[in-house]
Write a structure and sequence with these properties.
mainly beta; eight-stranded antiparallel β-barrel; eight-stranded antiparallel barrel
Length: about 250
């Protein structure tokens, strides 16, 4: 058993970082927990920024982003159910804590179909092999493997080195990484459906040294030269804005 996974005294503070830690779902009031393949979550943390991936149980492909404030995580997620149903978008709040048996766990409150629910995830040994994504499950227009740069934004003046966005996508679930201009780094997740990308995002702002959460609705278009275009209406830190990004080819 690794040192990072060893049970700790409940009197000790929780770890300042949960980077590269994995948790499995052990209880949920919203669904039955699989005894053989419970939903598994892998977390990444950089400062207050949280992001990661999950699969198993009722989830085929899942991604999330969030922000950590002390021991509380504000999470935004997107996943495709194993059933093939529409991609689910949602929000949750998790508290990092020690269980009565000394295991690190996440106590999560979330809403499903308009009803409040609770789930508990317990730290587990790292999974050796996460499932490969099926390349035939990419959507059209294809965002998987694409790169975009910020062309204009109502939130800031675009610099000579504009923000750059790297996207991945599978089964209608979109996730990505971005950096440059006013942003040290950022992560996003969302759902691509009928040419519209609904996203959640988190990023670190250079000027204010703040980590901000936001959401957006983006329309995909194609320019006369064949490049994809993203026209985004967003809300960042409670302030609405608009931006335009163009594909790098």
């Amino acid at each position: 058993m690794s040192d990072t996974f060893a049970p700790q005294s409940a009197a000790q503070p929780v770890p300042e970082s949960i980077n590269d830690r994995e948790f499995i779902l052990t209880y949920s009031s919203g669904s039955q927990v699989s005894a053989t393949s419970p939903t598994r979550f892998r977390y990444h943390q950089q400062g207050q920024m949280i992001w990661g991936e999950y699969f198993g149980g009722t989830v085929s492909v899942g991604r999330f982003v969030g922000r950590r404030d002390a021991d509380v995580l504000s999470i935004r997620f997107a996943h495709r159910p194993v059933s093939g149903a529409e991609v689910v978008l949602g929000t949750a709040h998790s508290t990092i804590r020690w269980s009565d048996t000394g295991e690190l766990e996440l106590y999560e409150t979330f809403e499903k179909d308009g009803e409040p629910h609770v789930s508990i995830c317990t730290e587990a040994e790292r999974h050796a092999a996460w499932p490969e994504l099926d390349p035939s499950s990419r959507s059209t227009p294809q965002l998987d493997g694409t790169t975009f740069v910020l062309e204009e934004s109502s939130a800031s003046t675009v610099s000579a080195e504009p923000t750059r966005f790297e996207f991945d996508e599978n089964s209608g679930v979109v996730w990505g990484f971005y950096f440059g201009d006013t942003v040290t780094s950022g992560h996003c997740v969302g759902r691509l459906r009928d040419g519209v990308l609904d996203e959640y995002f988190v990023h670190h702002v250079i000027a204010s040294d703040a980590t901000l959460l936001g959401d957006s609705s983006t329309t995909l278009g194609r320019r006369a030269d064949g490049r994809l275009e993203l026209v985004e209406a967003f809300v960042l830190d409670g302030v609405p804005g608009k931006s335009v990004c163009v594909q790098v080819v």
